[in-house]
């Protein structure tokens, strides 16, 4: 058992978007801050820092999780996916394209978190009802869109993905 | 905000956790899913010198069913909801758990963490109390089981001693039928008030016993025995009368979200709905 001192930085290694990364963190460093400031992955946003707004949601070992209520040292050895994993260069994936088609974002602050939640959600629930989408979205706060565009985008992406799978 | 500096240990065994607790006592906190403790650390409502991480501690997961059903303290809420056995044998959990937080927090939040945190409006403490379950605590001196009736002592306060950790939760198998109704400002928010019901009916279909539990009303979940109302079928009249009577006995909290009178009103209305839900299920 190793006790990591609160006053010094410790090596933290994790796989992010398929690539091995190493950075340094005090135990109190939020995973979200580690991703942004240690690894330079600024796509993950930080809103409330207490688990309420959803902006910081990433996939940790495939599970959608807040990255503001976990500390970087906890994720040592974990595999993380962030919004940077979605597009292929300049080509948006189906979910991102659906967001664009449906005006599902304005300022974009909430978008990275919602995209990551929706990615995991659609894996588990490939043909969701609107109610299921709205319940999933209750874990995110968007101050711009009024949510309708986001709901439409996720439902459209479900359709796109379903067609893709059938083909 | 960011937490104050703390030392961190990722404990690999229960032994390690207990050794650390003995050494640090009140100065240490146990980190489960972090859905309540994370915000408290970040807001500096908790300023421990040591955080003991249970996320990779062996022996705290899983579900076993003998007489009661036992869930490991670190069982994630999502894992519990996906477990057909648990949801079938403890139907009250199947009804209540979708109201816990959000999809993105249930994935990480644990059963033991919510029970240890003891928020007065939390669903899992309310269900455990209503069903008359037990919390298993372990320290260097051994383990003990504490009935939910004795475990929840007040706002974020439980019978757990600083040198103890929760290792498991025991959910009794109750025959009968169940209801759960909650009122929150938005889906997934803290409940203003929640009502959980377990009723037993006799051969003629009349109420024989069970309990009605209320969360978010007092500084801890509270439950009332339904035996004293036994003898008649649960129809709208009886449900209204029982829930009103029980709501009248509560001593509700008064805060910025809801005043005491509104909470008592909610307790009556939601209690009645939960009773009707349980009765409807029994009748069908
Ligand atoms: S920043 Fe993590 S939920 Fe708001
Ligand atoms: S697009 Fe601005 S907060 Fe959602």
Structural commentary:
The complex is a heterodimer of chains A (167) and B (284). In chain A, 47% of the residues are buried. Chain A folds into two domains: 10-84, Ubiquitin-like (UB roll) (Roll), CATH 3.10.20; 94-166, Orthogonal Bundle (DNA polymerase, domain 1). Chain A is elongated, with a radius of gyration of 17 Å. The N and C termini of chain A lie far apart (51 Å). Chain A has five helices and six strands. Chain A has a five-stranded mixed sheet, covered by helices on one side. By secondary structure, chain A is an alpha+beta fold. Chain A has helices at 31-38, 94-101, 111-124, 130-137, 148-166, and strands spanning 3-4, 10-16, 19-25, 58-60, 63-65, 79-81. Chain A is 34% helix and 15% strand. In chain A, helix 2 crosses helix 5 and helix 4 crosses helix 5 (148-166). Chain B is an alpha+beta fold and 284 residues long. Chain B folds into three domains: 7-53, 2-Layer Sandwich (Uridine Diphospho-n-acetylenolpyruvylglucosamine Reductase, domain 2), CATH 3.30.43; 63-172, Uridine Diphospho-n-acetylenolpyruvylglucosamine Reductase, domain 3, CATH 3.30.465; 177-283, Enolase-like, domain 1 (2-Layer Sandwich), CATH 3.30.390.50. Helix content of chain B is 34%, strand content 26%. In chain B, strands 4-5-10-6-7 form a five-stranded antiparallel sheet. In chain B, strand 2 (28-31), helix 2 (37-42) and strand 3 form a beta-alpha-beta unit. In chain B, helix 10 (236-249) runs antiparallel to helix 11. Chain B is globular and about 60 Å long. Chains A and B meet through strand 1, strand 5 and helix 4 of A and strand 1, helix 2, strand 3 and helix 6 of B. Strand 1 (3-4) of chain A pairs antiparallel with strand 1 (7-10) of chain B. Bound molecules: FE2/S2 (inorganic) cluster (2 copies). One FE2/S2 (inorganic) cluster is lined by residues 105-111, 142-145 of chain A.
């Amino acid at each position: 058992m190793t006790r990591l001192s609160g006053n010094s930085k410790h090596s933290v290694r994790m796989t992010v978007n398929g690539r091995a990364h190493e950075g340094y963190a005090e135990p109190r460093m939020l995973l979200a801050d580690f991703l942004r400031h240690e690894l330079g992955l600024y796509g993950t946003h930080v809103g409330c820092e207490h688990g309420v707004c959803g902006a910081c949601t990433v996939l940790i070992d495939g599970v959608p999780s807040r990255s503001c209520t976990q500390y970087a040292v906890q994720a040592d050895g974990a595999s993380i996916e962030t919004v940077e994993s979605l597009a292929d260069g300049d080509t948006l994936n189906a979910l991102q394209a659906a967001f664009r088609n449906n005006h599902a974002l304005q300022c974009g602050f909430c978008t990275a978190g919602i995209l990551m939640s929706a990615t995991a959600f659609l894996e588990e629930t490939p043909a969701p009802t609107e109610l299921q989408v709205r319940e999933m979205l209750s874990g995110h706060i968007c101050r711009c869109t009024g949510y309708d565009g986001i709901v439409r985008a996720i439902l459209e992406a479900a359709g796109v993905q379903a067609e893709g799978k059938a083909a | 905000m960011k937490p104050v500096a703390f030392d961190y240990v990722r404990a690999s065994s229960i032994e390690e956790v207990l050794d650390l607790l003995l050494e640090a006592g009140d100065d240490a906190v146990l980190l489960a899913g972090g859905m309540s403790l994370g915000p408290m650390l970040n807001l500096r409502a908790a300023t421990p010198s040591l955080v003991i991480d249970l996320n990779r501690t062996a022996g705290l997961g899983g579900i076993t069913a003998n007489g009661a059903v036992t869930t490991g303290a670190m069982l994630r809420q999502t894992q519990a909801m996906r477990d057909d056995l648990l949801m079938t044998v403890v139907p009250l959990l199947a009804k209540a758990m979708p109201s816990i937080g959000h999809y993105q927090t249930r994935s990480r939040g644990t059963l033991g963490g919510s029970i240890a945190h003891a928020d007065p409006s939390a669903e899992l403490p309310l269900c455990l109390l209503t069903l008359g379950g037990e919390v298993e605590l372990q320290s260097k001196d051994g383990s003990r089981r504490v009935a939910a009736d004795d475990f929840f002592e007040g706002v974020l306060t439980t019978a757990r001693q600083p040198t103890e950790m929760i290792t498991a939760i025991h959910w009794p198998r109750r025959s009968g039928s169940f209801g759960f109704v909650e009122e929150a400002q938005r889906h997934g928010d803290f409940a203003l008030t929640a009502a959980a019901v377990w009723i037993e009916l006799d051969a003629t279909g009349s109420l024989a016993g069970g309990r009605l539990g209320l969360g978010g009303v007092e500084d801890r979940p509270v439950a009332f025995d339904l035996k004293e109302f036994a003898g008649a079928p649960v129809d709208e009249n009886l449900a209204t009368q029982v829930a009103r009577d029980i709501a009248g006995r509560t001593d509700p909290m008064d805060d910025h979200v809801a005043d005491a009178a509104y909470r008592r009103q909610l307790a009556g209305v939601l209690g009645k709905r939960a009773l009707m839900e349980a009765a409807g299920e029994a009748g069908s």
